[in-house]
Amino acid sequence: MKIFRYILVPLCLTLMSSHAYSQSLTAYDLNTPGYLGNTNFGGNVGMAFDVNAVNVTVTSLGIFDSGGDGFHHVMTTYLYDRDTHALITSQNFSGTTVATAGTLVGNQRFIDLAAPVILGPGHYVVSAYAS
Fold it and tell me: What pTM value is reported for the model?
């Protein structure tokens, strides 16, 4: 569990139900201002989640930015279907500009997907890899 404090992979989600109700939220949000990670872990880190009865629309992917100063390596966030192991979407984060590193929100940086992804009920994993 310790590693999840250093590399966190948030998703910006919009929940849509059949009643036209929507709410935007960040999954796996680590909101600890000033928190600095201290690991050089270079592997793949992820968290599993399930979508139950309501479809979830993923509009952006994000990643934890220790210190809020951008990235020295290319960091990639992946969204997979846990049952089929199929890659659904991914996003690269690098450098320090909004265009390449994403918009800083708290301790996370987000980049909008080219097109939203709708996740139906099922089993998923969001993960990050530092190359």
Answer: 0.74
CA pair distance 119, 36, nearest whole angstrom? 32
pLDDT tens digits, one per residue of 5-52: 333 445 444 333 333 445 555 655 555 555 565 556 666 778 888 998
What is the DSSP-derived secondary structure letter of residue 43?
S
- Rounded to an integer, what distance in angstroms lies between the CA atom of residue 53 and that of residue 109? 29
Q: Tell me phi and psi for residue 55, to 5 degrees.
A: -60, 150
Domain ranges of the chain: 2-19+42-130
**What is the C-alpha to C-alpha distance for residues 25 and 37, in angstroms, rounded to an integer?**
24
CB 75 within 8 A of CB 10: no
